[in-house]
Specification:
The protein is 37% helix and 25% strand. It is built from eleven helices and 15 strands. Strands 8-13-7-14-9-15-12 form a seven-stranded mixed β-sheet, with helices on both faces. The protein has a six-stranded mixed β-sheet with strand order 1-2-3-6-4-5, with helices on one face. Strands 10-11 form a two-stranded antiparallel ribbon.
């Protein structure tokens, strides 16, 4: 579901508040956070979708990494997860078992466990997880908090939606698919750890709304403008070629339309008319299990890079925060 439709559906429920609900519908963040005592809060999130790759085990692994990413983005640690699956009666149950195995192995890599789940019969296969984690109430990392002068960093290359769309169209090269799968199955635990050690001031994970869509959410939450330099964005192998061939997931066009629309008298995001097609497409591309978008004070950037390197975690500085509103894209 696109950001505009989702906002419309959730609008009647945004005022459902309680003192213990530290992060909920009223803040539009990555996961819900509910405080249980002075030193502990529960982080909970849910995500599921149809297969984006052919191999069942790999699909399960990608889905689990994607679902747990929201907990990492909130500064939390996953504890356990529940499987959610819809499965057609005419598909082998062995395939569903492989999906579950991929999810279980990935959850285990995060130090968490699968504790159960629920399955229904449906014409279209879908898999996901409800993930429960824990975080200290004073160490929650939300989308808000970025201030003018902060720097922006990204921890995974962009283009998973473009590559998987090319795969569905039988246009993708195997090496490009392998690189996208490696990115999507990589956990965001090390990225979050490096960000926390560097004193992150705001953080979110990059998923279905694309880099620019989630950047806009951070801009709104912080009451600031985010400036992103297209030339600094890391792209997955093959993305430039597929964009040149006209490959574009439907979600990319929805993200473009949403961001180009006015918000308080100005577009949610603006970009130069001569922006490089592949880089702009990647910035709008709906990601599955994308990286973290991190805002950090400029004097803490070396610390972020140092800790990321020690954890063998990539990080790219892609922009900064300024006064104003919305997202401003430069070349």
């Amino acid at each position: 579901m696109g950001p505009e439709d989702l906002a419309h559906v959730l609008r009647p429920f945004a005022n459902s508040l309680s003192p213990e609900l530290l992060v909920g519908l009223h803040t539009a963040d990555d996961a819900a956070v509910y405080q249980i005592n002075e030193t502990q809060a529960v982080v909970q999130t849910l995500d599921f979708f149809p297969p984006i790759v052919d191999d069942p085990y790999t699909f399960g692994a990608i889905t689990a990494a994607n679902a747990m990413s929201d907990v990492f983005a909130m500064g939390g640690r996953p504890l356990f997860a529940l499987n959610i699956a819809a499965w057609p009666a005419n598909l082998p149950l062995e395939m569903l078992s492989e999906i579950f195995r991929g999810g279980q192995d990935t959850v285990a890599r995060a130090g968490a466990v699968i504790a159960g789940g629920h399955t229904v019969t449906d014409d279209i296969p879908k898999y996901g997880l409800c993930v429960t984690g824990i975080v200290h109430p004073s160490r929650i990392t939300t989308k808000g908090g970025a201030r003018p002068g902060d720097m922006l960093a990204l921890t995974k290359p962009l283009g998973t939606g473009i590559v998987t769309t090319a795969l569905k169209a039988e246009q993708a090269e195997q090496g490009d698919v392998d690189a996208a799968v490696a990115s999507m199955t990589r956990l965001n635990d090390h990225a979050a750890e490096a960000a926390l050690k560097a004193g992150v001031v705001a953080m979110t994970d990059v998923t279905g709304f694309g880099l620019l869509g989630h950047a806009f959410e951070m801009a709104v939450a912080g009451g600031v403008a985010l400036r992103i330099r297209l030339g600094t964005l890391p792209l997955l192998p093959g993305v430039q070629r597929y964009v040149a061939d006209g490959v574009a997931p439907g979600g990319l066009q929805r993200n473009r339309q949403y961001l180009a629309e006015d918000h308080n008298g100005a577009p949610r995001a603006s970009w130069p008319v001569d922006a490089a097609a592949a880089q702009l497409a990647a910035a709008l591309d709906p990601q599955t299990s994308g990286g973290l978008l991190i805002a950090v004070a400029p004097d803490h950037v070396p610390t972020l890079i140092e800790h990321a390197a020690a954890l063998e975690q990539d990080v790219w500085v892609i922009g900064d925060v300024s006064q104003g509103s919305g997202v401003q894209v430069t070349i």
